[in-house]
Amino acid sequence: MNTGLPPDPSEFTLRAPQPGDMGQIVSGQARLYAQEYGWDWTFEALVAEITAQFIRNFQPGHERCWVAERDGQVVGSVFVVRQDAETAKLRMLYVDRSARGLGLGRHLVAHALAFARGANYRRMELWTNDVLVSARRIYEAEGFRLVEEDHHHSFGKDLVGQVWSLDW
């Protein structure tokens, strides 16, 4: 259960990606969202495309990925990508079921925000769907505000996409 306290660093390690991690992140997210939200295999294509673009277009100093590892297993991740000179984009926040309740999601987002601020971005944006309630709570707690909503049919479901933004 999430106590609201900072996560115990002994519970997991945050590190840069290593060979094989990206495939695990794509697979883990695809399986998790299929199990929890009934999303189909087209979601896997989206996360695979985002991951491939990150690898191909990686800009050190402007972009970053953190992989959360626990007992030798990938249990979470988050990406920061450059949208433009002033805007960072938070991508693919993921926490495996086995690591829930440890504050890992909050910890990953905090690292992403600190990196974006240190890279001299002026804002961070993200796209999510309204059904991802736990993630949205993290964004709201960090001060993100909802700036756009759009109904769409994706991943085999009728969804409400949302754009959130945080300026500093």
From TrEMBL:
Q: Report if keyword Transport is assigned.
A: no
Q: What is this protein called?
A: GNAT family N-acetyltransferase
GO MF term set: acyltransferase activity
Per its UniProt record, what InterPro entries does this chain match?
Acyl_CoA_acyltransferase, GNAT_dom, NAT_camello-type
Pfam families cross-referenced by the UniProt entry = Acetyltransf_1 (PF00583)
Q: Locate the region Disordered.
A: 1-20
Which parts form a coiled-coil structure per UniProt?
none
Record bears the keyword Lyase:
no
Gene3D superfamilies in the record: 3.40.630.30
To which species is this protein native?
A: Hydrogenophaga defluvii
N-acetyltransferase domain spans which residues? 12-168
The EC number(s) attached to this protein equal 2.3.-.-
Alphabetized UniProt keyword annotations: Acyltransferase, Transferase
Q: At the top level of its lineage, which domain of life is listed?
A: Bacteria
